[in-house]
């Protein structure tokens, strides 16, 4: 929060904000096309394991500037899932700690100033360290965070959307016949079948909502899935 959070937020916006992301458009498209062509050559594949999970992995590792092998990529998806369980009850939380340790160890060993590909997010992050904008500890935490935050929810969104198209072939026909509807279809996939079902937050001050006062320091539950189906 506050002063501790601001440098990392600036770093993230510098590398992954709308303007920065536009610079990676060609790399993203090429990584996506390459994966799709590989899958088409196979004719049959698992839409979740081979496409939904591998697409964000291929794309984001290209942008990040690292090249993990296929087994490392599968392992990272497991780490990403476990990281989201860090907000779980104690028993499940304890089970996630080894994965979080492995993720940070991998980042320390594989996303270094020496290994970062020129023009990549990793290279830009380490340049920020050299300028003194962030510390090396903050840099590693941010880079590791990219791996987890960029994989789990994106893979889930792709998988859920594919499943909904399979269950609603008439909607798939609309998208197939008119590619201009693709952006809207992806947003609708996120709304209709939310990957992040809920998160909790703690209030920093008293908040009044619908004539109810939520005291400062209260843990609140935010149901994204319910909100996305709320007709209001």
TrEMBL record:
InterPro entries: Cyt_P450_B, Cyt_P450_sf
Record has Chloroplast as a keyword: no
Keywords: Heme, Iron, Metal-binding, Monooxygenase, Oxidoreductase
Record GO terms (molecular function): heme binding; iron ion binding; monooxygenase activity; oxidoreductase activity, acting on paired donors, with incorporation or reduction of molecular oxygen
Transmembrane intervals: none
Family: Belongs to the cytochrome P450 family.
Protein name as it appears in the record: Putative cytochrome P-450 monooxygenase
């Amino acid at each position: 929060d506050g002063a501790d959070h601001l440098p990392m937020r600036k770093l993230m916006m510098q590398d992954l904000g709308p303007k920065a992301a536009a610079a990676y458009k060609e790399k993203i498209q090429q990584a996506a096309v390459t994966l799709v062509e590989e899958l088409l050559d196979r004719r049959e594949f698992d839409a979740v394991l081979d496409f939904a999970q591998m697409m964000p992995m291929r794309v984001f590792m290209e942008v990040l500037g690292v090249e993990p092998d296929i087994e490392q990529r599968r392992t990272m998806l497991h780490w990403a899932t476990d990281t989201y369980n860090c907000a779980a009850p104690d028993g499940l939380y304890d089970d996630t700690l080894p994965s979080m340790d492995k993720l940070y160890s991998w980042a320390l060993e594989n996303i270094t100033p020496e290994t970062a590909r020129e023009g990549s997010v990793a290279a830009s992050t380490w340049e920020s360290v050299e300028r003194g904008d962030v510390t090396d500890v903050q840099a590693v935490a941010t880079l590791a965070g990219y791996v987890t935050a960029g994989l789990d929810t994106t893979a889930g969104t792709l998988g859920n959307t594919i499943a909904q198209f399979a269950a609603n072939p008439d909607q798939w026909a609309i998208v197939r016949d008119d590619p201009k509807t693709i952006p809207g279809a992806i947003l609708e996939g996120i709304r209709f079948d939310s990957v992040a079902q809920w998160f909790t937050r703690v209030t920093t001050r008293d908040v009044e909502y619908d004539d109810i006062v939520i005291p400062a320091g209260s843990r609140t539950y935010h149901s994204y899935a319910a909100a996305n189906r709320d007709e209001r």
